Amino acid sequence: MFTSTPYALYQCLPALAADTDWPRLVSGYRHMTLIRTFDKKAVNLQRTGKLGTYASCLGAEAIGTAGGMALHDDDYFVPYYRDHATQYLRGVPLHQILQYWGGDERGNAFPSDTAAARDLPNCVPIATQLPQAAGIATKAKLGREHAAVLATCGDGATSRGDFYETLNVAGVWQLPLVVVVNNNQWAISVPQHLQTASKSIAHKAEAAGIEGLRVDGNDLPALLDVLDYALDKARHGKGATLIEAVSYRLSDHTTADDASRYRKASELHAAWQREPVARLRQALVDADHWDAAREKQWLADCQQQVDAAVDTYLNQPPQAPTDMLDFLYAELPDSLKPQRAALAQQAGGRHA
Amino acid sequence: MPYFTLPDLGEGLQEAEVLEWHVKEGDTVKVDDLLLSVETAKAIVDIPAPQDGTIATLFVANGDLVHTGEPLLAFDGDEGSGSQTVVGNLQSKEDAENPDSFVVGAVSDSRPAGGTTPAIRALARHLGVNLAQIKGSGPAGSITLDDVQQHANLKHSHGDSTPLKGVARTMAKTMASAGQQVVPVSLFDQVSVSHWPQDTDITLRLIRAIVAGCRAEPAVNAWFDGESLSMRVVEKVDLGIAVDTPDGLFVPVLRDVANREPADLREGLDHLRRDVEQRKIPAKELQGATLTLSNFGTLGGRFATPVVVPPQVAIVGAGKRFVQPGIRNGELFEDTQLPVSLTFDHRALNGGQAARFLAALLADLAL
After folding, report:
1. Which of A48, A195, B170, B280 is most exposed, with the fewest beta carbons within 10 Å of its own?
2. A9-316, CATH topology level
3. ∠A124-A253-A75 over CA atoms, to 5°?
């Protein structure tokens, strides 16, 4: 059973317990490596004009992977925009993630036979997904579902009214909601110390009367412990949790940003010394659950999977212009029906 | 031959400067290998190879400015063997938003040059003239034989023209825009500074005097909007300081100069100058000046009519000190004079306001 001192940074990797679930950690490590390979390729696709503006998840692999592994199929996931690992683990194929960032509406039509079909798509406006997550959690509670809602956001989002409103209603209605804040220290170019005077982001749970936890966001087993605990608590009707996962954004904010203009190289270098993938690999190697041969083979597998996803993405048939309406509305409003009819008449449906 | 063209690297950024090629012609690259680094208005970006292949031609060199859609390089091989962005058909990017006539590399013949004939194109090729750099003098702007020959002569006797880049380019645009808007009037005067101690920090005295001028005539420290004909007098004096560097003119902003101690201002100045010299100054430190000081006298020159850059309404210029004969108690003495110029935008200020500002400024320098 997970226990921690309130607001103290919870860690596991410095001293892994004897009863560690090694197969789960190895599986998590594989996912983290795959998503890092994918992430690197996605940036390169943008740099060569084959993808739109892209938000890298470099440095957030542990947080995203832990979310995807701790969620049950009956739970709901409400992402922000750096959650490629969670989305993948929920069942969104890599090529569909690329489609989304390539501006293809079909990227958001998650496969109906996966858990992702219950999830919301990426949310680029800051923190607006959180009240929606509270709404879904309310529905789950009223429907007596044995399900939790996991919502994510960044540190910048915790300054928004939406964030506080969500925590408040989650507290007063005892919602089955878990909000994970990826505190990667930078809201685009705004550093943590200019973002909030709060002792920590987890402390913001205090006013809402819910539990606030701080966890090392570069520590997969710690994240799994905390998420298992919080999601289980939510599913059993014991209330909401705010989790601050302390990480570091190793990438630019997006491909349209250049962090070297506002961030010290020394700070970035220091952050690389505690990045999540290498740390977990070292722990697995030390415990004899991973080695160089398996690493080499797995990296090759990752590259192959990513290349296949890129191929699928680049060879999608062109989108019909009507997709922009069909993938936005469950039921098209009457006022848009003439427009849709006009779009449908365009031969071939190819962009000019 | 498959071309690789400059993609849109930011969100709608139209041009980038090539910082460095990491490959050369004849090199064989694999997909995702680093090809080159470019700088856009927002970021320095590394561009990887879009495909495997051998590089046949590089169309741009380090330092060149290139627009999205223009070719960076060509790979060996057949047309159409590349991937999505690799196109064989180069399109002109001349549009209203991008009136640049600068064309990169030796691909001019694939651009439909503005109205000319095959013979003239052949001549241009022969003479090494880039048609896209020529403004036609024929009917409907078409390029004539004479145009090409004139251009070739010019190039022969004076070499190619060099497109401005970076800071110089920004300055050219800013000054052209200022010159079109502002109605400038200049006032000149000089003040005796013989009594200043040897180690006087002249820039700090000038800043103090400007603050005194602003107290006497606050309207000089203001922003003027020529479109809506509205004026906003600013309480805080954020002083732009013109700094000359080998790369060109920078005007970093020293904040709130009216309420800072001299030592703090000196430290701030040194800091700005160092950041400028190392080209590390953040863009926001170059924005938001309410008034500008150009202390060109450290280099030379007595009086000047420096350009007011909107939305500011005035700029102060300080020249090189000089000695003239003075009379004190019937005796001649060597009197050191500091020449001061003030240019103001007559749309926003009138002569009385400018003169009052200048008088207060000089009175403070005379203290």
Report:
1. B280
2. Rossmann fold (3.40.50)
3. 45
ipTM above 0.85, yes or no: no
**Cβ separation of A49 and B42 shorter than 8 Å?**
no
Neighbours of A282 (CB within 10 A): 12
Residue spans of the domains in chain A: they are: 9-316, 320-352
Helix B118-127 with B145-158: angle, nearest 10 deg? 10
Domains and CATH numbers, chain B: 3-158 (2.40.50.100), 168-365 (3.30.559.10)
Kindly report whether the peptide bond that precedes residue B311 is cis, defined as omega within 30 degrees of 0. yes
Tokens of B311: 């939305």
DSSP letter at A200 equals -
Tens place of pLDDT for every residue, chain B, 367 residues? Answer: 678 888 888 777 788 889 999 999 999 999 999 999 998 877 788 899 999 999 988 888 888 888 887 788 888 876 544 433 433 333 333 333 333 333 233 333 333 445 777 777 777 877 778 887 788 887 777 888 788 888 888 877 887 777 787 778 888 888 999 999 999 999 999 999 999 998 999 999 999 999 999 999 999 999 999 889 999 999 999 999 998 888 788 889 999 999 999 999 999 999 988 888 887 777 788 888 999 999 999 899 999 999 999 999 999 999 999 999 999 899 999 999 999 999 999 999 999 999 999 999 999 999 9
Axis-axis angle for helices A292-314, A22-47 (nearest 10): 40
Could B7 and A53 be called an inter-chain contact, meaning their C-beta atoms sit closer than 8 Å?
A: no
Contact A53 B50 (CB under 8 A): no
**A317 touches B: beta carbon within 8 Å:** no
Question: b/e for A153-165, b at 16 or more Cβ within 10 A?
Answer: bbbbbbbbebbbe
Residues of chain A with C-beta less than 8 angstroms from the C-beta of B4: 48
CA A158, distance to chain mean position in Å, is: 16
> How far A32 CA sits from the closest chain B CA (Å)?
21
Strand residues in A13-96 grouped as ranges (E)? 76-78
Q: Is A110 exposed, middle or buried (0-12, 13-18, 19+ CB in 10 A)?
A: buried
Q: Tokens at residue B358, please?
A: 């200048």
Q: How many angstroms separate the CA of residue B85 from the nearest CA in chain A?
A: 6
Kindly list the residues from chain B whose CB atom is less than 8 angstroms away from the CB atom of residue A314: 83-84
Structural tokens at position A53: 């503006």
Q: Is A252 on the interface with B (CB under 8 A)?
A: yes
Report which of A87, A95, A142 is spatially closest to residue A118, judged by C-alpha positions. Answer: A87
Cβ contacts of A183 within 8 Å, gap of 6 or more? A154, A155, A192, A201, A217, A244, A245, A246, A247
